[in-house]
Design a protein that fits this description.
Helices cover 27% and strands 24% of the residues. It is α+β, with helices and mostly antiparallel strands. The chain has one domain (34-334): (Glycosyl)asparaginase (Glutamine Phosphoribosylpyrophosphate, subunit 1, domain 1, 4-Layer Sandwich), CATH 3.60.20. It binds glycine.
Amino acid sequence: MPTRRKFLTSSASLGLLAAGRPLEAASLPPSAPLGKALVISTWDTGLAANLGAWKILSKGGHALDAAEAGVMVTEASQNCCVGLGGNPDREGIVTLDACIMDDQFNCGSVAALERIKHPISVARRVMERTPHVMLVGEGAQQFAVAQGFPLEPQKLSPDAEKAYREWLKTSAYQPIINVENTRGSKPTGPVGGANNHDTIALLAQDGQGRLSGSCTTSGMGFKMRGRLGDSPLIGSGLFVDNAVGAAAATGQGEDVIRMAGAHTVVEFMRQGLSPKAACEAAIKRLAQIKGSKAHDIQVCFIAVNKQGQHGAYALQKGFSYAVCDDKNQQQLLQSDYLLT
Ligand code: GLY
């Protein structure tokens, strides 16, 4: 656990951060030099996820293990938008989506998975123990149980139960953007409030320079039964090309899908853009696609390149992301954004 915690209010107080504006910094447990080791993840919930990933990296572990372990922390927490504590679909059932990808183009995914605590681990088993990339719904659950994952009770968390009852009063979809933030730039509505959806996406580079990523969510709160967003889709919610870099998305999944978001960011990096510039270019493309409707949504990207540089960019104000690197420090950064 961090031994020292500093709250920072301006970039001037921290000095040289190229990637984003610092909101908070904390020291990490001391470790041996870790080469290019780096973890970056979405929202301030990423702070805890990064520590889970860093435990693996600081022992010289593989980026894939770090990517899985990091987001398992969020899946196990009572979070409005990730794991079994998340908001349900409009039938009142929590359905989970996740994907994982390593440095060799191996990838696995599950979607619309019910009653399993760690969808990211099932996605990894799909990758490692089946000839497939993606399993959905009942088949994904059947596979998970066959692999020894316990079937959890079909029960909403107290917060999700409350939010669902509230939603039933109108059954209207009124998303509140940036709800995943619990500190820093506050959301416009209550944290965990009705109709929200978001994601933990995490990118890791290990001491040997191997990249991997993970992405997991309960998806849009009170979504139509069967709705999938970007998070289980390789190329949309997550993409890793170890020769170039890795990228991941959070926000309105439908709009990330329509532009193959994470893959697009990696392709911009392949063309020579820095991670931040690649995220910005992808957001600008999305803004062009959406026109005046861009103001109604939030989409954010994070990226890492092979050189160990990282960056992020959002469509709208309010996106924060967490970064651990080999300077034995973790930072919560405020992303730059396009729309004013
Ligand atoms: N980005 C998560 C979702 O739209 O489901």
